[in-house]
Specification:
With 246 residues, this protein is an alpha/beta fold. The chain has eight helices and 15 strands. The N and C termini lie far apart (74 Å).
């Protein structure tokens, strides 16, 4: 009787394993990024693909941790809101680790140190650093740059959804300065050296981290493991040379 019962169950088990919901497939992890922050994340004009330091790093982490990922391009403020609501599994987008953000999401170990720096037009001799920052100053909405500018007396903050628009306004004399992460500022100055320059030094000490939706501790562990392996393999140095020093 037992043998007969087993023979009857075998086809059922095989059918169950063949069903889509029962397949042992790797779940695709949705990674949010705001692809407006070259050289960390931006859309290539020719290929229309998202590329940059963060994108290469996340791909390296995924490879080392056996993760299947897809990138979702979303503006920075909705990105943070989406992470808080669990809309995305994780996010990599030049995200500074802060205590306030850590209330709404988990963070990986740090992977890059980048403080805020001021960019002005090349003919500006008045603004030389944070202590002399005056006038109308641009920063991206929801970023630590906007937060820091908001703390400075006598300065009018103008926020942008895309930091590129802030630099355009700066070069068009619509604003007096831009505050953003050091590598991002260097990237824009490198492409427009006759028009804009950075002044002073970075006036904050900040670390980028990969955000992970709350409750996804297993994913966080895999990302941290992959990040550690990528660091050991010299990936950070390679990407710094590729994206920041070129």
């Amino acid at each position: 009787m037992k043998r007969l019962l087993w023979l009857l169950l075998v086809p059922t088990l095989i059918l169950a394993m063949a069903l889509p919901g029962c397949k042992s497939e790797t779940t695709t992890i949705r990674i949010a990024t705001d692809a407006t922050w070259a050289p960390f994340e931006s859309v290539n004009d020719q290929t229309k693909q998202i590329e940059g330091f963060d994108i290469d790093l996340m791909n390296a982490i995924a490879e080392r941790s056996g993760l299947k990922i897809e990138f979702v391009n979303v503006a920075f403020d909705p990105l943070l809101a989406g992470m808080a609501q669990g809309t995305y599994d994780a996010a990599i987008s030049s995200i500074t680790i802060t205590a306030e953000r850590a209330k709404d999401m988990l963070f990986s170990n740090p992977y890059f140190n980048a403080g805020q720096i001021i960019t002005v037009r090349t003919d500006n001799t008045t603004i030389t650093g944070k202590s002399t920052l005056t006038g109308k100053v641009g920063a991206q909405l929801g970023t630590t740059g906007a937060i820091e500018v908001g703390k400075i007396a006598g300065v009018t903050l103008k926020t942008y959804d895309d930091i590129g628009f802030a630099f355009q306004d700066l070069m068009n004399k619509q604003i007096d300065a831009v505050v953003c992460d050091t590598p991002v500022a260097f990237g824009y100055v490198g492409k427009n050296a006759t028009k804009i320059k950075t002044v002073g030094t970075a006036f904050t000490d900040e670390n980028y981290g990969i955000a992970v939706a709350k409750g996804k501790t297993d994913l966080l562990a895999k990302i941290n493991s992959g990040l550690a392996k990528a660091k050991a393999d010299g990936i950070i140095e390679q990407l710094t040379t590729k994206w920041l020093k070129s």
